[in-house]
Amino acid sequence: MKKQVSDTFSIRNTMIRNRICVPPMVVYNWSDGSGYVDDKHVEHYRQLAHGGAGLIIQEATCVTAEGQLAQTQLGIWEDGQIAGLRRITQAVHAEGCPIFVQIHHAGIVGIAEHALCPSAYQLGDKTGAEMSVEQIHAIQQAFIRAAQRAYQAGYDGVELHGCHRYLMCQFLNRRVNTRADVYGEHPEQFVLEILEGIRKTVPEDFVVGIRLGAFEPTLEDGIRHAKILEQHGIDFLDISYGFTEEQETEKPAGFPYKDIVYAAGEIKKQVSVPVFAVNGIRTPEDARGALELTQVDMIDVGRGSLANPNWTADALAGRETDTCLDCSVCQWRIDPARCAGRLLHEKRQK
Ligand SMILES: Cc1cc2nc3c(=O)[nH]c(=O)nc-3n(C[C@H](O)[C@H](O)[C@H](O)COP(=O)(O)O)c2cc1C
Ligand code: SF4
What we know:
CATH architecture: Alpha-Beta Barrel
Helix content: 25-40%
Largest sheet: 8 strands, parallel, barrel
Bound molecules: flavin mononucleotide, iron/sulfur cluster
CATH class: Alpha Beta
Mean pLDDT: 96
Number of helices: 12
CATH topology: TIM Barrel
Radius of gyration: 19 Å
Distance between the termini: 41 Å
Structural class: alpha/beta
């Protein structure tokens, strides 16, 4: 049957009210450096939920203070953070929208002086030192505890941040992870043990998915990782880019969307769990076209939803969707007040 943007479906017991997802997108100037939620976060997610999205995945939220990408990134590393996070889930649920939180550790890309990495690896001027097995187990526990806190805070699930060069991605990419032990022989082992640990500690209906690199380093690897994760009970696969410096991207000539949208479609052919596609989807026509061409289950509309938080409601009602203006550097993470797309959208609303 032809997939429609307006279709509802469920992941475990979580009802997804249409096929548009707001993917995780960090903002760095709303926090005070403690990793605690501010009123601005609550209002931002309430607004996105009110705007009709089928699902929201909250921005990368760090599982340890040392694993942060920026000092003002949201955190889920201590129990005191739960109350603020609960304000977000309550605001979003009151608008009838489910919400997952992306749990994250930056690894070698992070701000820590001695950044963690599965193996000795040089990234620009940063040298990652190989993690000890004790360090690996400690970070795995941090992910598991973060998922428990996410459950306590009222999220419908978590998305493991397994792409975009961060720690899990570093484990999954054999050009970065050159370890001689089981974590190198089986690059998925680090993630699988976290998945297993989370499953043991949260109720059965709590969703556990992953944002996974499609080209890690090749699409063949991405497909293999997807299949292994499915065999081990992952609930959804949100497909994006992998470790930028160590990936071989591909798409056939004439494919009208981004290479990772193509890759999401190729992964969808091989698994039966829900697959999400992302990048460069700006208009309702893009969303419909990408759904039809790839047969994925969910389309992420990221910057489009930042510029117009009502993007989904407008699309479903057949209204004009103001959208992202593709600034050369997205200003949102630095300061949402600088988002030219949002400013234009607000002007048009007046
Ligand atoms: C401001 C900003 C912050 C982002 N933060 C995250 C993040 O926290 N986690 C993540 O996986 N991707 C992050 N991304 C990537 C987006 O989720 C998305 O994959 C990307 O913007 C491409 O989709 P789009 O063309 O619909 O915007 C971010 C992107 C932007 C623009
Ligand atoms: S309009 Fe510019 S600042 Fe706003 S979401 Fe798009 S790229 Fe980011």
